[in-house]
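Data card: per-record layout.
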Amino acid sequence: MKKLLLGLGIVIGTMTFAQSSAGPRFGIKAGGNLSSITANDSKSKFGFYAGAFMNAPISAEFSIQPEIVYSLQGAKANGTYEIEGYRITNMKQNLGYINVPVMIQYNATPELYLEAGPEFGFLVDAKAKGDVNGRSFDGNNKDSFNTFNFGLGLGLGYKFTSNLGINARYVAGLTNIAKNSGGETAKNTNFQLGLGYTF
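The structure for this 199-residue chain is written out next.
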């Protein structure tokens, strides 16, 4: 009986090790953003993201997925503004980030997974677009924003095949992105939906 239990334990242990020691897989991902900035005068805008990832199993149920992604985020201004004789309408703030999320994924089923983890963002470009006194305006205002952004992501995904899957993720920013916000904290929020392809 002891030999039988010992043999069963060795077989189970070998199977578990084989599952958790699978090598990392690499892939690409892309999709759309619905982003905003947590300020009273802003509303959501559409953008996009695209990048690459590595998925490395750490057990039969869990894996870690670091990514590097370009993400176009920002917000639209909610309404019309009068500032020092200027009438500003249709204002939109674009923020381009290189984001590095590190997601811990739990495989609820072979197809469905849940994920959570931190996201480190680095601002690479910022542009404000709109109409000023009826004329189109497009200007670089990167100096108005902090270069580094930190957030937490929560999401889920579904694998159609071993290579192709869909992912939805919400990232809540935790740091103030504006250098001079006049006492008001401005943070990024971003909902992502897109496809991933694993090689």
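Known properties of this structure: DSSP finds one helix and eleven strands in the chain. The CA atoms of residues 153 and 192 lie 10 Å apart.

See the next section for split statistics.
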